[in-house]
Every structure is written in structure tokens, then in C-alpha cells.
């Protein structure tokens, strides 16, 4: 699972899982990331914040790039 956190007014992946504030989780697999991107539900309930389609794509792209970097390091 990848934690995402609300930092100020922006939602960002939280690699350290230590960022203070509200957080939520996404599965790492591609199917779940695509489902999150395409979701029409406006609110990310655990963050208590609405996310637009552009924000969802930005979050999943960031997660994908971090996952790709971690695979390269192995």
C-alpha cells in the first residue's frame, strides 16, 4: 500500500509514511491505480477532500514513478 497525505492543500504520495496530517492509502498494483484515476467519486473520504481528475492522474503518475525507481534500485 502507498500512503498519500494532505500536505497544505496538495495531496502527495508519502514514501516515509510519516508526514503529519490526514492520510489515505492506495494499492500499488496498476489495476487499482487505474481504477483510482478513472473514479467518478469526487471525495477521497479518508482525506476529507475532493479530488479532481487532474489531481488523481498527478497522484498516480507520481506513485508509478516512485515504484519504477524502487524497482530499478533492487
Features of the shown structure:
two-stranded antiparallel ribbon; alpha+beta; 74 residues
What does this structure look like?
By secondary structure, the chain is of the alpha+beta class. It has one domain (2-73). Helices cover 41% and strands 24% of the residues. It contains 2 helices and 5 strands; from the N terminus they run βββαββα. It has helices spanning 30-38, 53-73, and strands at 2-7, 10-13, 23-26, 43-44, 49-50. The strands form 2 sheets. Strands 2-1-3 form a 3-stranded antiparallel sheet. A two-stranded antiparallel sheet has the order 4-5. A hairpin with a 4-residue loop joins β4 (43-44) and β5. α1 (30-38) packs antiparallel against α2. The model has no long low-confidence stretch (mean pLDDT 89).
Strand content: 15-25%
Structure summary, number of beta strands: 5
Strand count, sense and barrel status of the largest sheet are: 3 strands, antiparallel
Mean pLDDT over all positions = 89
Rg is 12 Å
- What would you call the structural class? alpha+beta
Q: Which term fits the overall shape?
A: globular
By DSSP (H or I, 4+ residues per run), the number of helices equals 2
Q: How many domains would you count in the coordinates? A: 1
Q: Unreliable segments (pLDDT under 50, ≥5 consecutive)?
A: none
Helix content: 40-55%
**Series of H and E elements:** EEEHEEH
Strand order of the largest sheet: 2-1-3
How far apart the termini lie comes to 18 Å
Amino acid at each position: 500500500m502507498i500512503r498519500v497525505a494532505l500536505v497544505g492543500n496538495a495531496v502527495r504520495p508519502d514514501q516515509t509514511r510519516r508526514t503529519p496530517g490526514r492520510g489515505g492509502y492506495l494499492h500499488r498494483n496498476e489495476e487499482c491505480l487505474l481504477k483510482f484515476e478513472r473514479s467518478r467519486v469526487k471525495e477521497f473520504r479518508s482525506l476529507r477532500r475532493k479530488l479532481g481528475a487532474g489531481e488523481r492522474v498527478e497522484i498516480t503518475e507520481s506513485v508509478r514513478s516512485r515504484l519504477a525507481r524502487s524497482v530499478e534500485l533492487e
